[in-house]
């Protein structure tokens, strides 16, 4: 964990240094001084609403484990999001699996399986959106953005291949998981009985968490909600661009969205400092936006993305009678 933390800090420092090294402070302050507040507030509302949308989607993923109302899932979702932003191990998924496991008395491993499905669906949804956007982009990219666009296409291709492989594995485990359990148990025969039994319990619980994929209705709802969710994220980008009076093509919000996801995926310090900003600036380079203007927008986007989620998480943390230290202990013990 410590090695991962230090790698993330080094990456963040290097990227933040690159972001700030080419900035004209005067132009940066001028750009920030012209921002319109109302669109930023709308963007923050959009971002906060995504937590309810994600909890709504999670409800359908949890149906195969235990049906429960969306409101019961909201608190673990918000606290998990905050955990990803303030703790070095990014254990938000572990935290929310344990919170809902303790609260609803369900298998934590099965709950983690629903999180795996979430991640794959998010990746697939963003990929589909980017592929649709790519139909329009080649006709509108400024010359200075062509090099970034070439890299963008390469990343899309790599992500697409990984996504297809991940979907194939999950589908295979979902539909053939029960048949694989007996061969797996025989393969683990060299282990002590207690360890083998615990390992198989983990496998069975994880497989049960994939059960929502077998329900056509639940899977359809999860897919539709995923499209809605990421459209709301893109809408928040639109309002931030409007706050800076940047009237870019409609697909710009979706390009920014893909790069933002990439930025929070890379190793970084807590808060995605540096990686998030560099990713947003790379997206703007593709769109032909100046570096100073891109830095201004990246700073505001990061603040709108970072601060409200933390404040909301703190409120729910207080409501659940938990502390940052308890979350840190949980994450550390599971890292």
What does this molecule look like?
Helix 2 (25-33) packs across helix 12 (291-319). The longest helix has 42 residues, at 146-187. The protein has one domain (9-334). The protein has 335 residues and is mainly α. The protein has 13 helices and no strands. The chain starts with a helix and ends with a helix.
**What is the number of E strands?**
0
The largest pleated sheet is described as: none
Shape assignment: globular
Written as H for each helix and E for each strand, in order along the chain, the element string is: HHHHHHHHHHHHH
Uncertain runs with pLDDT below 50, 5 residues or more?
Answer: none
Quaternary state, please?
single chain
- Taking Cα atoms only, what radius of gyration do you get, to the nearest Å? 21 Å
Distance between the termini: 7 Å
| Fraction of residues in helix | over 70%
Strand content: under 5%
**Counting H and I runs of at least 4 residues, what is the number of helices?**
13
Structural class: mainly alpha
Number of domains: 1
**What's the mean pLDDT score?**
79
Concise structural overview:
With 335 residues, the chain is an all-alpha fold. It has helices at 2-21, 25-33, 37-62, 70-86, 92-104, 108-133, 146-187, 193-208, 216-243, 252-265, 275-286, 291-319, 324-334.
């Amino acid at each position: 964990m410590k090695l991962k933390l230090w790698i993330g800090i080094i990456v963040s420092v290097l990227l933040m240094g690159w972001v700030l090294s080419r900035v004209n402070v005067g132009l940066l302050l001028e750009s920030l001084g012209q921002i319109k507040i109302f669109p930023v507030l709308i963007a923050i509302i959009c971002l906060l609403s995504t937590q309810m949308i994600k909890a709504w989607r999670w409800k359908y993923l949890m149906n195969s484990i235990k049906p429960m109302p969306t409101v019961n899932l909201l608190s673990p979702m918000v606290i998990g999001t905050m955990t990803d932003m303030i703790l070095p191990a990014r254990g938000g998924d572990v935290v929310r699996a344990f919170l809902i496991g303790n609260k609803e008395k369900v298998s934590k491993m099965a709950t983690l399986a629903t999180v795996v499905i979430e991640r794959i669906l998010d990746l697939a949804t963003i990929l589909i959106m980017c592929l649709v956007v790519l139909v329009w982009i080649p006709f509108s990219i400024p010359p200075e953005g062509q090099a970034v666009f070439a890299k963008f296409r390469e990343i899309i291709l790599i992500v697409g291949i990984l996504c297809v492989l991940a979907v194939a594995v999950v589908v295979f485990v979902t539909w053939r998981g029960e048949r694989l359990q007996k061969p797996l148990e025989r393969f683990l025969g060299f282990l002590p009985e207690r360890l083998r039994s615990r390992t198989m319990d983990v496998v069975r619980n994880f497989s049960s968490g994939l059960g929502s994929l077998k329900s056509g209705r639940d899977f359809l709802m999860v897919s539709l909600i995923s499209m809605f969710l990421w459209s709301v994220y893109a809408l928040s980008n639109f309002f931030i661009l409007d706050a800076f009076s940047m009237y870019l093509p409609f697909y710009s919000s979706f390009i920014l969205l893909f790069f933002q996801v990439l930025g929070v995926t890379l190793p970084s310090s807590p808060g995605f400092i540096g990686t998030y900003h560099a990713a947003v600036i790379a997206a703007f380079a593709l769109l032909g936006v100046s570096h100073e203007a891109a830095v201004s927008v990246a700073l505001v986007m990061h603040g709108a993305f970072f601060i409200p989620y933390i404040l909301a998480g703190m409120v729910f943390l207080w409501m659940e009678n938990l502390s940052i230290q308890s979350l840190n202990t949980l994450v550390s013990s599971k890292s």
